Inverse folding.
């Protein structure tokens, strides 16, 4: 017995999952990012506005990549 064809000519297979390297990194909020660095969230937001640390302004909230926070910490440690 042959399997029934998918409706409208679509494949019955599910789409392939992208490799982990292509899945975007989760964004964290100001509070979580500031806690990692050990500063106040408002200070972190001020740094982001001044371009001292990369962040994304989404709606009314700042978001940061964890890797960006780690890179910033590493740069600051090297500078001191």
């Amino acid at each position: 017995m042959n399997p029934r064809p998918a409706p409208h000519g679509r494949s019955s297979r599910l789409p392939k999952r992208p490799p982990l390297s292509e899945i975007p990194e989760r964004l964290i909020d100001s509070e979580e990012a500031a806690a990692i660095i050990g500063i106040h969230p408002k200070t972190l937001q001020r740094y982001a506005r001044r371009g001292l640390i990369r962040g994304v302004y989404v709606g009314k909230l700042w978001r940061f990549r964890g890797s960006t926070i780690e890179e910033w910490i590493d740069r600051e440690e090297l500078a001191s």
In short: Residues 26-79 form a domain with the Arc Repressor Mutant, subunit A fold (CATH 1.10.10.10).
